[in-house]
Design brief:
Pfam families: Beta-prop_KIB1-4, F-box. The protein is an alpha+beta fold. The chain contains 8 helices and 27 strands.
């Protein structure tokens, strides 16, 4: 009997504590001061916050406050969203990596204007995406809020140069740089827009590194990166995504800013903006191999994704360059059971890095796939297709950005 009384006493105390906890929880949401409420809501995933903002007027007012944006800026990182590029180039479909789902965003009004309707995304960093309007004009946009800024036109002299690479580097979502690399190997130059000053800097001529003795290729800039066994570009039905024709990434290593991009022959060119020089990396695969290639940035490091064919099978591998021995090292590879179906189909890959993930769009005349590779676990996940009006939508490429409502253009 005493045992039962003790159990009943403990159960009663437990129910009382639970009731108190529930009351405190209810009280905490109703009685939180504005500062604490903003801090709590700032930790919500961005997509969840937009739903929460419709809960009540108070929460809606939080979303418009400058102090809330400041609280959001203190969140170290957010799961990346991938802005998808389709052949129409006028929609905002994103893949939310946090809940593995497709979402639609309102297309920014500035990009809907007739003069900007042909704009294509060409670079992204932090919470921002850069669109190219042609004639060396650019718009920087926060896809989440729809806010945009049209950058000042590039100097007329730059328009006469062949644009090779567009790279973007956002700093704490409050300022950013846009880097353009132009010219023809071995004569390259770059120009940098700094949002802090609101203007373009002077054109910088890049010298060739004195320790580089290799010859440069001069193939057609419009080449799709498939090479024949003789080393010549093979004509294919698959055209590289126009958004990725300036495929490039920027890293900061030991205080030096370096832009990497693909040359017309498929080799990697490194442009050191700090020392104002450039060099070509050794060819990753022999010229007698057919392959498709793209360059990505993951956690401040340049990596290369290559889809190649060997021994009647296709292989998709990711490579890192070892500066100490001037050699490429494979770090992960897609399981052969997944990559074999790409054999003989002239598949074009367009890739983007985000933290430890690489998002890969695979396209050919026969099929399209979207795959995410986790570099830590070597896990390869094929994503579900995006359907519109009952039909699967084909995307050519993607750009990675963090969904940051506080990111300023």
């Amino acid at each position: 009997m005493e045992h039962n009384d003790n159990w009943a006493s403990r159960a009663g105390r437990k129910r009382k504590l639970e009731a108190q906890d529930q009351g405190m929880l209810s009280l905490s949401m109703d009685e939180l001061n504005e500062d604490l409420l903003e801090r709590v809501l700032s930790w919500l995933p961005t997509s969840a916050f937009f739903r929460a903002a419709s809960v009540c007027k108070r929460w809606k007012s939080v979303s418009d406050s400058a102090s809330f944006k400041l609280a959001c800026s203190e969140i170290p990182s957010r799961e990346p969203w991938f802005l998808m590029v389709d052949p129409h180039l006028n929609q905002s479909t994103i893949f939310d990596s946090a809940d593995r789902s497709w979402k639609k965003l309102n297309y920014p009004p500035l990009l809907k204007q007739s003069s900007n309707c042909d704009s294509i995304p060409v670079a992204a960093s932090g919470g921002l995406v850069c669109f190219h309007m042609g004639a060396c004009n650019f718009i920087v946009c926060n896809p989440v809020t729809g806010s945009c800024r049209e950058l000042p036109p590039v100097h007329a002299a730059q328009e006469n140069h062949s644009l090779l690479a567009v790279a973007m580097n956002a700093q704490n979502n409050q300022s950013y740089k846009l880097v353009l690399v132009s010219g023809e190997l071995p004569k390259l130059s770059c120009k940098v827009y700094n949002s802090s000053t609101g203007c373009w800097g002077e054109e910088i001529l890049l010298r060739r590194k004195v320790d580089e003795s290799q010859e440069f290729d001069s193939n057609d800039d419009n080449a799709v990166y498939f090479l024949s066994k003789a080393g010549n570009v093979v004509a294919t039905d698959m055209q590289r995504s126009p958004s990725k024709q300036y495929s490039s990434v920027i890293t900061v290593k030991d205080g030096e800013e370096i832009v990497y991009f693909l040359s017309s022959s498929g080799t990697i060119v490194s442009c050191n903006l700090t020392s104002k020089c450039f060099s070509e990396y050794p060819r990753l695969l022999p010229v007698f191999c057919e392959y498709s290639i793209d360059v990505v940035e993951c956690k401040g490091e340049m990596l290369v994704v290559v889809l190649s064919e060997f021994f009647e099978s296709a292989n998709l591998r990711i490579w890192r360059f070892d500066e100490s021995i001037r050699s490429w090292n494979q770090i992960v590879a897609m399981p052969p059971a997944m990559s074999h179906e790409f054999y003989g189909k002239k598949v074009d890959i367009n890739c983007v890095g985000a933290g430890d993930q690489i998002f890969i769009c695979l396209n050919s005349a026969e099929f399209f796939r979207y795959v995410v590779c986790d570099l830590r676990t070597n896990e390869w996940i094929e994503l579900p297709k995006c359907f519109k009006n009952g039909e699967a939508v084909e995307f050519m490429s993607a750009f990675s950005f963090e969904p940051r409502i506080e990111a300023s253009v």
